[in-house]
Each structure stands twice: as structure tokens, then as C-alpha cells.
Design goal:
Elements lengths: L6 H10 L5 H14 L4 H8 L5 H9 L7 H10 L5 H11 L10 H10 L6 H10 L5 H10 L13 H11 L5 H17 L3 H20 L6 H10 L6 H10 L5 H9 L5 H17 L7 H9 L5
Helix pairs in contact: 1-2, 3-4, 4-6, 5-6, 6-8, 7-8, 10-12, 11-12, 12-14, 13-15, 14-16, 15-16
């Protein structure tokens, strides 16, 4: 719920976005989000100014979760900025709009960036990421056209070496590079005949998912959902940690199916249930919601 705050308070918080103190910057973003729509005019002015790109990107972050059309307009204007970090922050705001807006302005703007070869590779990858909540068959063609930055991952014939590369570079490599690696790992996992080696490929893929989740990237969320939806047995812990960090309401039924495949494994079932409860809380799903009623009817005892 928004709180009362004076224009002077808002101006001070916006000024704090340029502070050298990271705690002060983070607190300012959090406070601006709580205040809500009344911050939009001052934030819009600041985002369009000549201030430092990092501070203007933080200002865009303060607009996330606002369902006001004025916030959408500010994010759309930010896509024309000269600074990649500002454009990427604008795309992060638009990710919440592309699948939910009444019109198509956000979808069209983000798609245009995803296919624009003149754009910075990081920006194009962020645009594809912003489309991740759309159905996979719509996103995959755009993802296939996205730039594949040069990478130095190890021989793809060795799942252990792949895990070592992920541990060393998963936090800094382009998100699209890690996602491309996930696709390759899944392909090897599916074609592997030896059970032990197939498990090793799966562990490497889970590690890559966790690396993306730590960065807040939903680029591979479809693969994550599909993995829980179709697994015949418990998965490595990294998959659970990734979906707990990134998952939304669409992940609950896949998690319920994964919970149901191991009726005699109380540790797995408890961990999956806890993960689902955390996602439901973040998505603000109550026991009265249609999704929760359906899940509790079909999978009693799950959540």
C-alpha cells in the first residue's frame, strides 16, 4: 500500500540514487517503490536527465511492480536512451507488462529491440529475457536470432568440466551464453544412454539454472518449468533453488507433479512443498484463489 510522502521527501530519495553509499541507494529504491505512483513524475524527470546511467537505471527499478500506465510510458521512453544499462533497466520494467497489458505497446517495443542487430548484444539479450513469460513457441524464434556472445565454455563432451566452467563464469558470462549452454546440456542429457552420465548432465544443467537465477534472469524459466513438469524422479537441489528464486504462479502445477512422482521420498516432497509455498507467498496467492483451490483438489497435501 502506498504511503503519504511529500514532494520534498520524494526529491530527496531520488537524489539518494546518486549516492556513493550502496545501502543508501538500495534504501531509496525500496522507499520509492513503497510510495508508489506519486513518485512517477519526479522519477520520469530524473530518468530523462543527464544524470549518471547507474542512478537512472536504479530510478527505473523503482517503477517495477507499478501497474500505472504512466510507469509504462516512462519505461518505453527509456528504450531510446544512449546508455545500455538504462535501456536494460527499462526492459526489466516492461517484462511485467508484455504478458499482461491490454494493448501491445510493450510487446512491440521489446520485440523490436530483440531483433535489432544494431543494438548492443547485452540489450538484445535483455529484451529476449523480458519476453520470457510469453509462451515458449513465441519466444524461441526470437531467442534463436539473439546474439551469441563469444564464450569459453569447456568441451561439451564433459559434464564435469561444464560444471567447473559454470562455477567460474556463470556469474559474469552473458545471460544468453548461459542459456545457450543450458540448451546444449539438455540435448546431451536427453541423448545420453548411461544413467550415471545422464545424471551428471542434469546436475550441470541445474547448476547453470541456478547461476541464471542468482542474477535474476528468467531467460530459461520455460526449461525450468518443463523440467519439473516432466521429471520422473527427484531433481538435484540446484533446480529447486533456481525455481524458488524465480518461479511464479505458472510453476506451481509443474512443482506439484514433481512432488507426486516420489510418494516415498519425504525429504524431496517436503522440499518441493516448501518451495511452492514460497512462490505462492511471493505471488500473493491465497487459499481462495482459483489456482490454489485447483492444486489442493488435485494434489491434496502438497501445499
Amino acid at each position: 500500500m502506498a504511503v503519504r510522502s511529500s514532494a520534498r521527501d520524494i526529491a530527496r530519495l531520488v537524489a539518494d540514487l546518486e549516492s556513493d553509499d550502496s545501502i543508501r541507494r538500495t534504501a531509496a529504491v525500496a522507499r520509492l517503490r513503497v510510495i508508489g505512483e506519486r513518485t512517477i513524475p519526479r522519477l520520469a524527470e530524473f530518468i530523462g536527465s543527464g544524470a549518471d546511467a547507474r542512478a537512472r537505471a536504479l530510478a527505473l527499478g523503482a517503477l517495477q511492480d507499478l501497474r500505472a500506465s504512466r510507469a509504462l510510458d516512462v519505461a518505453l521512453r527509456a528504450l531510446g536512451d544512449n546508455e545500455p544499462d538504462v535501456v536494460i533497466a527499462g526492459l526489466a520494467v516492461l517484462r511485467e507488462w508484455v504478458a499482461r497489458e491490454d494493448g501491445t505497446s510493450a510487446l512491440e517495443a521489446v520485440t523490436a529491440i530483440a531483433v535489432d542487430e544494431a543494438r548492443h548484444p547485452r540489450v538484445r539479450a535483455a529484451a529476449v529475457d523480458a519476453l520470457s513469460e510469453l509462451p515458449e513457441h513465441l519466444v524461441r524464434p526470437l531467442r534463436d536470432r539473439a546474439p551469441r556472445p563469444e564464450h569459453a565454455w569447456p568441451s561439451i563432451d564433459d559434464p564435469e568440466a561444464a560444471q567447473t566452467w559454470i562455477d567460474a563464469h556463470g556469474a559474469t558470462a552473458e545471460a544468453s551464453t548461459v542459456h545457450a549452454l543450458i540448451d546444449r546440456l539438455r540435448s546431451h542429457e536427453q541423448s545420453e544412454s548411461a544413467a550415471q552420465r545422464r545424471t551428471a548432465w542434469q546436475r550441470a544443467r541445474g547448476r547453470a539454472h541456478r547461476a541464471l537465477a542468482k542474477r535474476g534472469s528468467r531467460l530459461a524459466l520455460f526449461d525450468l518449468r518443463e523440467t519439473f513438469d516432466t521429471t520422473p524422479k527427484p531433481l538435484p537441489e540446484d533446480f529447486l533453488m533456481a525455481v524458488e528464486a524465480l518461479g511464479d504462479a505458472s510453476c506451481l502445477e509443474p512443482l506439484a507433479r514433481a512432488w507426486a512422482v516420489a510418494p516415498y521420498d519425504p525429504t524431496w516432497r517436503a522440499r518441493v512443498s516448501t518451495t511452492a509455498a514460497a512462490i505462492a507467498k511471493r505471488a500473493r496467492l491465497t487459499a481462495r484463489s482459483a489456482a490454489m483451490k485447483r492444486i489442493r483438489t488435485q494434489w491434496p497435501g502438497f501445499i
